[in-house]
Amino acid sequence: MDARLEAIRNTVLARNPGEDEFHQAVTEVFESLGPVHDRHPEFLEGAVLERLCEPERQIIFRVPWTDDAGRVQINRGFRVEFNSALGPYKGGLRFHPSVYLGIVKFLGFEQIFKNALTGMPIGGGKGGADFDPRGRSDAEIMRFCQSFMTELYRHIGEYTDVPAGDIGVGGREIGYLFGQYKRITNRYESGVLTGKGISWGGSLVRPEATGYGTVIFTEEMLKTRGQSFDGQRVVVSGSGNVAINAIAKAQSLGAVVVACSDSSGYIVDEAGLNVALLRQIKEVERGRLKDYAVRRSAVAYVEGGSIWDVDATVALPCATQNELGGEAAARLVRNGLVAVGEGANMPSTRHAIAVFQDSGLLFGPGKAANAGGVATSALEMQQNATRDSWSFEYTEQRLTEIMVGIHRRCETTADEYGAPGNYVLGANVAGFVKVADAMLAQGLI
Ligand code: GLU
Asked: Closest Cα to residue 308, out of 364, 270, 261?
């Protein structure tokens, strides 16, 4: 890392002790930015990096609620409003027991660059709670969401901060959150949240967008080498919204998607995963992948273990951060991997990224490859602002154009900085320069 940047990075780490994931995200971005500071001394003079690493505002709050047995439960809620240079803070809410400030800050930090890359007018933010939705009844989820919004409502707004979903927060949760926001504020402010239901201000394609976008981005990478998804053997980790829609899109392009996972294990279906059955189990029944193997013949269910033991030519990690480590990466590379598209946020460790990049395969980092979700959230905001709703075809076409545009931006930026094919550098530099220019133009704030 450039010595000037390393000094700033070390200060950031010392100021934010114990936030490992935030440190990792900052380090990964800083490693790309040395050459940018040679060309733009004004960024150093304006202390852009120091400002960028300090969130504009961080909110931590108590979320009290009662479970179905009448017991009082207390969780911790977060919203980190990281950077508003390009637009209102924008980013999802994550409900998962692992959530703490370091996770929210890594996600918020990544979101700044991701959102910049989309070309849409959105800043970066992220939030969530250390609430575990697993095994909770619908009524408990609703009470939790209502309590969470009873604090959050005062901090958000269509021109201020626009949350959406992430792990553990989908259409159901956004519904309860929106209902409570409307009730407290007495305003039908559609643009305050995205990922809404289609009949009450949501956008078609939003549920599919992150998974579809990841596949579209990866297809663009493959095209640069005269390849495509057609005939690829694909492994997708996870089985949530991002994973299922990535599987569906990859299959529509001719890939055979043989495996996916949940937190208990993974399934291998050599005939190609049945998306309808996956949706039935995961989305309708909110069940476990184990049930898939029970209902379909010739399917292996492996309890525990790592899905990255399954060979693939294309890997789409769509589960969670740091799920794919260096050893797994090396094994996949040895066994014929040609491309990786990150559907999740920071799913590959720094070691894994180094292995992928050293091998010369195509590696699409999450902040570029998974930007389709938040981009379509921005399309939802656009529809809300004009009180319009677009067709599936039109919205999907817009999403495709955005993903192709992100790919092109990463590619040309990597070329411009003498690192052709390095999508990590391309994404970090292109996203950073856009935000840095806007920050300088808006003065010292
Ligand atoms: N949580 C998603 C992401 O990581 C989507 C955020 C949004 O739509 O605001 O980008």
From this structure: 261
Cβ of residue 90 lying under 6 Å from some atom of ligand 1: yes
The alpha carbons of the chain give a radius of gyration, in whole angstroms, of 21
- Residue 89 has phi, psi (to 5 degrees) of -55, 140
Q: Rounded to whole angstroms, how far apart are CA atoms 329 and 236? A: 14
User: pLDDT tens-digit profile of 321-341?
Assistant: 999 999 999 999 999 999 999
User: 403-429: b or e for each residue (b if 16 or more CB lie within 10 Å)?
Assistant: beebbebbbebbeebebebbbbbbbbb
Q: What is the pLDDT of residues 244-259, one digit of tens each?
A: 999 999 999 999 999 9
DSSP string, 42-94: HHHHTTHHHHHTS-SEEEEEEEEEE-TTS-EEEEEEEEEEEE-SSSSEEEEEE
- What pLDDT score does 228 carry? 98
Give the pTM. 0.97
What spacing in Å lies between the alpha carbon of 376 and ligand 1's midpoint? 9
Six token digits for residue 286: 């909110």
194 lines ligand 1 (CB under 6 A): yes
- In short, whether 168's Cβ falls inside 6 Å of ligand 1 is no
> CB of 105 within 8 A of CB of 80?
yes
Domains of the chain: 55-188 (3.40.50.10860), 208-369 (3.40.50.720)
